[in-house]
Amino acid sequence: MRVIFHFGPPKTGTSAIQKWFSTNYEWLLKQGIHYPKHSLDLNGVSSGNLRSVFSGSKANFEFSESLFSNEQQIAEQKNCHTVIFSSEFFFRSLAILAEKVPGALFVGYVRFGLETLQSSYNQSVKRHSRTTLFDPGNYTQSSLTFMSKMIASIGENRFILRPYSTSLFARNNLVSDFLDTVGIDAKNVSTAVGRVNSSYSIEAIEVKRWFNQLDLESLQDRLDLSLQGYGDGQPFSLLSDEEFETAKARYLLQLKHFLHQRNLDWSSDFYQQCEQLQNQNYKQQILSDIKFERILRGMIADQKLTYTALHTAYEQARLYQEKLENPQRVEILNKVVPYWVKLAFKLKTTLFSQQQRNNK
């Protein structure tokens, strides 16, 4: 039984690959491939096959022999010759996976650090409640350093690395490239997945960054869905031209060192593409209160956000108003929510308090 672990790493289209595999389960079975089923959120995003291999809590995941064996048994029962697991969590768990599954292969993508830098910040605001402004840091691509360490420790013969570049993908498509890499003929099947985990526009970043100051998980999910479609869709940069060139030179040095140590037939073409990368239109992280209000009203009008959710946010925000960045926006929330919503909220709160007193 061939076992393949796709480990990402982060910001290399893992969500798109997982979505396609999840929605093409039966087709994969016909090709002799077992890909353990997992759920997807409304954005088509998930943790992949993490729970098919690891048990425990987020702070203490452990490799599970029973879970892994169960997936192998399912594959055998379905007459499959290959099991493919995919999760970005596997990236930091390569050592334990290599030890527990000695014959496994590891598939991952190499993306230019300069692209990952801004994409990672976008994701940190979207999904990880970041409230601070973009900071380029020290221009170090830790994923390449870690990958080099794992390859040296586990063995280069157990890794299959591919470039994260549309023009270098098989048939210019990430999913097609992955299928081709693991030996699956997908010439006669659609590998389209649509937009998955789309990046925010600069305006969306600033709206979400402000709301990230509030501890309202349900609202954050709604905001994420609403804001992914906001903006003109044009690429932009959080780096000035000078910062971009400085970062580019640093990341190219790291990439050159990484590629020089490997025998990869795509190295030269990929490095040349990275050398030719140009900065996008620079955008500062500034959003006027007028634009902030307009975006909120637009999401309400498009029924992507409810007045009730916004009023709930207002009730929490006003308690911590002095500690918030741009505290004046609390009153914008109050302004957008109509009086009847506030009245209904007040009545509901009053009735709940009376019920509590009666129960005592």
Can you characterise this structure?
This protein is of the alpha/beta class. It has two domains: 2-181, Rossmann fold (3-Layer(aba) Sandwich), CATH 3.40.50; 220-234 and 288-359, no CATH class. The protein is built from 16 helices and seven strands. It has helices at residues 14-23, 25-30, 50-53, 65-77, 94-100, 113-127, 142-154, 174-181, 202-211, 217-227, 241-260, 267-275, 289-301, 307-317, 329-336, 339-359, and strands spanning 2-8, 33-34, 54-55, 62-63, 82-86, 105-110, 159-163. The strands form two sheets. Strands 2-5-1-6-7 form a five-stranded parallel sheet, sandwiched between helices. A hairpin with a 6-residue loop joins strand 3 and strand 4. Helix 9 (202-211) runs antiparallel to helix 10. The longest helix is centred in the C-terminal third of the chain and has 21 residues, at 339-359. It is globular and about 65 Å long. The N and C termini lie far apart (63 Å). The model has no long low-confidence stretch (mean pLDDT 93).
Count of DSSP helices? 16
Range of helix content: 40-55%
CATH architecture classification name of the largest domain: 3-Layer(aba) Sandwich
Number of strands: 7
The biggest sheet, with number of strands, parallel, antiparallel or mixed sense and barrel status, is: 5 strands, parallel
What Rg do the Cα atoms give? Answer: 24 Å
Q: Stretches where pLDDT falls below 50 for ≥5 residues?
A: none
Spatial sequence of strands, sheet with the most strands: 2-5-1-6-7
| CATH fold-type name of the largest domain | Rossmann fold
Mean pLDDT: 93
